[in-house]
Amino acid sequence: MLIGLLIPGSVAAERIKDLASIQGVRNNQLIGYGLVVGLDGTGDMTQQTPFTVQSILSMLGQLGLNLPPGINMQLRNVAAVMVTATLPAFAKPGQQIDVTVSSMGNAKSLRGGTLLMTPLKGIDNQVYAIAQGSLVIGGAGAGAAGSSIQINHLGAGRISAGAIVERAVPTTLGQGEYIHLELRDADFTTARRIVETINYRFSVGTAQAIDGRLVQIRAPLDNDQRVAFLSQIESLDITPSQGAAKVIINARTGSVVMNQAVTLETSAVAHGNLSVIITTQPIISQPGPFAERGETVVAAQSQVEIRSDEGNLMLLPGSAKLADVVNALNSIGATPQDLLAILQALKAAGSLRAELEII
């Protein structure tokens, strides 16, 4: 079992462009339906995919070729596909973007195929790009003669620069007196620090926080000046606040990732042949008998004990960190299911003071 722990240290300064995006500057999803031809007998079985036959007849009709009704088409070199793409912000007509082509029928493979001209539409049902080109199937390889080797999934492929933008999506960047920054992760402290940094760099009142995610900024009205102004803002360094404690566990592999040193409160959990006992005891520190001054200090010290049928494992006294508990469970052979059950029990008991996400 592989258990990986990722615990970053102190939070470093980051650029505003890494923490927030400008409202209105965003990507847009495109989708289209098309046909891939030129397959080596690995296309759709047309008798089981009637939409492929219908698409072929419609395409041939647009090209001036009308087939007699009732014809039984047995085409194995054609596959019906869905084509998807992401239209970046400020994309202009004539630019090229990548597309992903995915089989929607029962084609065995799209390797070696060519996508025919396919219109790509947005949510408003308007055509924003046209896709066409030869597919590239990632990870496909050939084995030795006579051997059977599993090849990566062949039902999807990509066409680099396979679509030409035909229509630009209007943005609101150059409209109005204000622009808005949207934090990728809502946080009131980070929003306040962004406002303070911008106001210190320019002038008081330039920026103000609307809430924990949105920051309103007064920007120049001239487009050229506004672009230069946004360039300066994006380059400002901010020290974001430390995020809420979060633990992510992969239930299949047992991998554990936490975003900071998560500690555990007093609790006891029993799971099968494993038990985890977390105790806290006071440590009293008094000044020496001849000390002129000083005071008695009472501090809490945690201790974690993990027991199993194969033996006991006692951790050194100190703060009860989840990283230590996970490593100890791993060293005595706990399975991913054991680890998941114990972490869920600690969370339910209130000992694990962090958000637990299972993927």
UniProtKB/TrEMBL annotation:
The basal body constitutes a major portion of the flagellar organelle and consists of four rings (L,P,S, and M) mounted on a central rod. Its main location: other. Keywords: Bacterial flagellum, Cell projection, Cilium, Flagellum, Signal. This is Flagellar P-ring protein. Belongs to the FlgI family. GO terms for cellular component: bacterial-type flagellum basal body, distal rod, P ring; outer membrane-bounded periplasmic space. It is found in: Bacterial flagellum basal body. NCBIfam families: PRK05303.1. GO terms for molecular function: structural molecule activity. One of its GO terms (biological process) is bacterial-type flagellum-dependent cell motility. The gene is flgI. It holds the Pfam family FlgI. Assembles around the rod to form the L-ring and probably protects the motor/basal body from shearing forces during rotation. It comes from Nitrosomonas halophila.
